[in-house]
Amino acid sequence: MSVTVEKTPPDLEAEVERQIAPLRFQSALDFIETHPTLAEPIVDGLFRRGETVNVIGSTKQGKSWMILGLALSIADGRDWLGRATAQGRVALIDNELQPGTLSSRIKSVANAMMVKDDILRDNVVVLPLRGNLAGLNELYDPLEGLADQGVVMVALDAFYRFIPTGLSENDNAAMTGLYNTIDDLARKTGAAFVLNHHSSKGSQADKRVTDVGSGAGSISRAADTHMIIREHQDDELAVLDAACRSFPPIDPTSLRFEFPLWSESSTEPELKRAKGRQNEKQEQADKEADNVVRNILRDSGDWMCRATITRKSPFGPTRVNRALFRLAGELDVMQQPNPKNKSQKVDCFRYDCGNDPAP
In the chain, is it the N or the C terminus that has fewer CB atoms within a 10 Å radius of its CB? Predict the structure, then answer.
């Protein structure tokens, strides 16, 4: 299938007019009889035909690789991250990658998944737009033309480049209008529209799922599924979570990216928390004190009491005591008579070279 994009200035008023179907009320019973079932799931537990899906994550986190793996899983009718898919044709519309780069990525993922050539030929269509950008309004007719092609999922990668010139992703009204257009296309084609979008800067760990994502709040509110990738406490992993309109809430899942595929991990989905500036300063101060006390004892090679260590350090007794507590695993400890009061004993410390921390 070939797609021709005629680049004409978007006529927003005409766009709105053609999206609005005749309006009429129905009785609740007639309405239920008209719509007796939910739309077919495309990915079980996540999204259905005719829905809009946001995939949110930080820049260069691997969202495009995830969406590509998702698309080929649907095209081949295989499970995706442990969830069943409904097999069907998928359309990949990419405006960030050079055609050669996009081709290489498709080939890499298809080879890793052992997707056969006939699946790529019959069930995957591609429209590269890098260097020939078109806004969503300019793509309306080609996208609407997918209605008779059996396409069940359309991937728009990356969303920010599909925003028409003159509109801002921070404008709630503009984004609402844009998602209305996507909803209209999803309704006409029967396909789910999957949008690759970026998160805002900084830690996302303490945000609700629907608060993750850059731009206007209407971006998350308008989508049927808001799927997010966040940093895991383990730097080798990530955490997938989602808010779904037509499915029960899902449990967060740990994922691992091993080029070029994402896969599930049995590790607990523990989010990476940002350290406050005050905590960072305290950690730095503690590390400094530990190094000074460690070096004093290491250089001495003999037993030393707290008072002697404190005299040799630039710190007060409290800071030295805390350092000794943190260094307990590296030190030998014994009690010796107090030189000033023979009836009392004091703790003395000696550095144990066998417990030297790894460099």
Answer: C
